[in-house]
Task: inverse folding
């Protein structure tokens, strides 16, 4: 028998998320944060959404920059997620303190993370409030990927990259590539 839980605010803890590190460079502010609440929104135009609480320093920086990068990291970079996700740019210069390695983007001014296995360059097209988070919508202008990590269909090669997954609180996991199946309908 399934039971009804009373801690409704834990609704977001019941399935794993992939971890992206999201941020931007605006004037003299450079800041990134861990982000689990993100989603593709549209193929054409290619739109990607990230949900960011108003409390985050990143909220301020992306609002000013009007652009952001989305950087997906592998399980061996889990410490970076904890650093970007448990410390705030309101209190410290995370990028300097943790010596986060950055590379220039191609189209926008905000850098991508060297440690990411794929990064998106996004131009901010909309900000919309949903309760205590704001949905930042970006048009994806460029994608940086290590070609060797993706198969001929552009799908992540899980033998080469194990994406970092977030379970909630401070728990992380990754995938087991042995469970991979290529499945077509009958
Ligand atoms: C794995 C992980 C995922 C997170 N996902 C989100 C998210 O999707 N949206 C959000 O607003 N905060 C999220 N957070 C919290 C922020 O990353 C955290 O508050 C961070 O310190 C904000 O940094 P900033 O103030 O420098 O922007 C997440 C934290 C962790 C550890």
Result:
């Amino acid at each position: 028998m399934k039971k009804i839980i009373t801690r409704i605010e834990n609704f977001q803890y019941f399935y794993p998320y992939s971890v992206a590190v999201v941020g931007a460079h605006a004037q003299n502010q450079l800041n990134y944060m861990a982000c689990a609440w993100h989603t593709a929104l549209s193929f054409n135009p290619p739109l990607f959404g990230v949900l960011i609480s108003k409390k985050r320093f990143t909220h301020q920086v992306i609002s000013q920059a009007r652009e952001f990068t989305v950087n997906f990291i592998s399980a061996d970079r889990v410490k970076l997620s904890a650093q970007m996700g448990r410390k705030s740019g309101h209190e410290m210069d995370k990028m300097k303190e943790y010596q986060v390695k950055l590379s220039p983007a191609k189209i926008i001014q905000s850098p991508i993370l060297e440690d990411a296995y794929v990064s998106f360059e996004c131009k901010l097209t909309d900000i919309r409030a949903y309760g205590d988070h704001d949905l930042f919508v970006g048009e994806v202008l460029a994608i940086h990927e290590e070609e060797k990590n993706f198969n001929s269909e552009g799908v992540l090669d899980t033998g080469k990259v194990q994406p970092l997954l977030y379970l909630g609180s401070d728990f992380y996991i990754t995938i087991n590539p042995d469970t991979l199946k290529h499945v077509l309908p009958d």
